[in-house]
């Protein structure tokens, strides 16, 4: 059984900024218990495309 974590949009943006500044997906996933690298890439794409509402509505 997998546990779904909730990440507030402010935290997602902090994580995305760290990712864009060169921190690895693996280290961020481990630190924040993010289930997959795909989640980080999806958040990054939404952020870069100005889709903040997508970040607000998604838990993972």
UniProtKB/TrEMBL annotation:
Domain spans labelled Insertion element IS150 protein InsJ-like helix-turn-helix: 12-50
Database matches in Pfam families: HTH_28
Name of the protein described by the UniProt record: Putative transposase
The organism of origin for this protein: Brochothrix campestris FSL F6-1037
């Amino acid at each position: 059984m997998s546990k779904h974590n909730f990440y507030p949009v402010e935290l997602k943006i902090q994580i995305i900024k760290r990712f864009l500044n060169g921190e690895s997906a693996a280290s961020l996933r481990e630190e924040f218990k993010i289930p997959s690298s795909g989640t980080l890439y999806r958040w990054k794409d939404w952020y870069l495309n100005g889709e903040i509402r997508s970040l607000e509505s998604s838990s993972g």
